[in-house]
Amino acid sequence: MTGPPSQLGDATSDRDVVLPFPGPPSDAVLVGALKAHRPQAAELLFQRYGRYVERLVVRVLGLDPEVPDLINEVFARALERIDVIEEPAALKGWLGSIALFTAKTFRRDRSSRRGFVSFFAPEELPEIAGSDAPAT
Question: What is the pTM of this model?
Fold first, then answer.
């Protein structure tokens, strides 16, 4: 190996080899590791910003059973788009904007679905014809 190892570890020919790093890496090192698809970089991203993303999603939706799924969605979107970050110092704000957009989109979509269903009073909904075939 030539040169000093990075804080997230340098992989030799085997990308699964990870060297320990002293202390938490900076966001710049973390973004570089994410862009290079280094092992453990996504886990470190979640450890560092998981609670932050959770707070933002809960602020938009309140305590909702969908919050854990939306947090996962935020990180999945972030990992898919990590290559667009030009300034690693903007990682937290960029992740926050993804979290807010994801939560607001979910809230809007859920509201529009509920609005469609509640458009008619239950007694005004037409009966659905059932099948005469026996259930198996």
Answer: 0.67
